[in-house]
C-alpha cells in the first residue's frame, strides 16, 4: 500500500459491496459482521422526538463499530450503515421479490435520499463518524418495466435497501443523482480514507 493505513483493520459488516470497495482501494482488513438487532435500534431511534432520518444510519454505524471493536482488542474497526428515506418513510431491504416490486412502485417517479454512515472505533469507543446524503431521482416506471427489471436483475436486488443495485442494472432506473457515487454503494469511501490517513499519522 503506498499510503500508511492503520492495522489491524476490521470491517464490521457483512456487505459484499463495502468489502469490494475497500479491497479495490488496496486496504488489508478482515471482516466480522456486528450481528446487532438493527430493527430494534431503528424503532428506538425513529420514536425519539426531533430525530433526523440520517441519524438512524449514524447510530447504527456507530453501534456496529463499537460492538465489533470490543471483540478485536487493538484493532481499528469500521462500522457502516445505510438507510433509504422517501418523504417521511424509511425503507428496509426487501425480504422477497414481491416486497422488492412494492418498493420500486413506491419509489418510481420520485426523489429519495440515501443516508450512508461510517464510523471508526477502538476498544469499544467510537472516535470518528461521518454521514453522506445522496439524492436519487428515479424515472417514472410502469409495473411492466419493473417486472422485467426484477426478472433480469434477480434476487441480488434483495441485498439493496431500495431493491436496486446502482452499480449494475439498477442504474437504468434513474434519471439523476446528486451526491457521492461511493455512498450510493454503501460507504462514504473518500471521507473514510482521509480519516484512515489521519489515524495513521504523518509519514516517516
CATH topology title = Maf protein
- Find the structural class using helix and strand composition: alpha/beta
- Average predicted confidence as pLDDT: 92
Overall domain count:
1
Number of helices: 7
Uncertain parts: none
Order of helices and strands: EHEHHEEHEEHEHH
CATH second-level architecture: Alpha-Beta Complex
Strand content: 15-25%
Distance between the termini: 15 Å
Q: What is the radius of gyration computed over CA atoms, rounded to a whole number of angstroms? A: 17 Å
Question: Could you state the oligomeric state of the chains shown?
Answer: single chain
Helix content class:
25-40%
Just give the CATH class. Answer: Alpha Beta
Q: Report the principal-axis shape.
A: globular
Number of strands: 7
Largest sheet: 7 strands, mixed
Describe the structure.
The chain has helices spanning 16-24, 38-47, 53-71, 97-107, 143-153, 181-184, 189-200, and strands at residues 9-11, 30-31, 76-86, 89-91, 111-122, 125-138, 174-178. The longest helix is centred in the N-terminal third of the chain and has 19 residues, at 53-71. It is α/β, with parallel strands linked by helices and 204 residues long. It has a single domain (9-200), classed as Maf protein (Alpha-Beta Complex), CATH 3.90.950. It is globular. Strands 1, 2, 3, 4, 5, 6 and 7 form a seven-stranded mixed β-sheet that branches. The protein has seven helices and seven strands; from the N terminus they run E-H-E-H-H-E-E-H-E-E-H-E-H-H. A hairpin with a 2-residue loop joins strand 3 and strand 4 (89-91).
Amino acid at each position: 500500500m503506498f499510503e500508511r493505513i492503520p492495522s489491524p483493520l476490521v470491517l464490521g459488516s457483512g456487505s459484499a459491496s463495502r468489502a469490494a470497495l475497500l479491497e479495490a482501494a488496496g486496504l488489508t482488513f478482515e471482516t466480522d459482521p456486528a450481528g446487532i438487532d438493527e430493527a430494534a435500534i431503528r424503532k428506538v431511534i425513529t420514536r425519539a422526538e426531533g430525530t433526523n432520518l440520517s441519524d438512524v444510519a449514524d447510530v447504527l454505524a456507530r453501534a456496529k463499530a463499537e460492538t465489533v471493536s470490543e471483540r478485536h482488542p487493538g484493532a481499528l474497526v469500521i462500522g457502516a450503515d445505510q438507510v433509504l428515506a422517501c418523504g417521511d418513510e424509511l425503507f428496509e431491504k426487501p425480504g422477497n421479490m414481491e416486497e422488492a416490486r412494492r418498493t420500486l412502485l413506491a419509489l418510481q417517479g420520485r426523489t429519495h435520499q440515501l443516508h450512508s454512515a461510517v464510523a471508526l472505533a477502538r476498544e469499544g469507543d467510537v472516535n470518528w463518524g461521518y454521514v453522506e446524503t445522496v439524492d436519487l431521482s428515479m424515472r417514472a416506471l410502469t409495473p411492466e418495466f419493473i417486472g422485467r427489471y426484477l426478472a433480469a436483475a434477480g434476487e441480488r436486488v434483495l441485498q439493496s435497501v431500495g431493491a436496486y443495485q446502482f452499480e449494475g442494472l439498477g442504474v437504468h432506473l434513474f434519471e439523476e443523482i446528486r451526491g457521492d457515487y461511493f455512498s450510493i454503494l454503501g460507504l462514504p469511501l473518500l471521507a473514510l480514507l482521509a480519516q484512515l490517513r489521519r489515524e495513521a499519522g504523518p509519514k516517516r
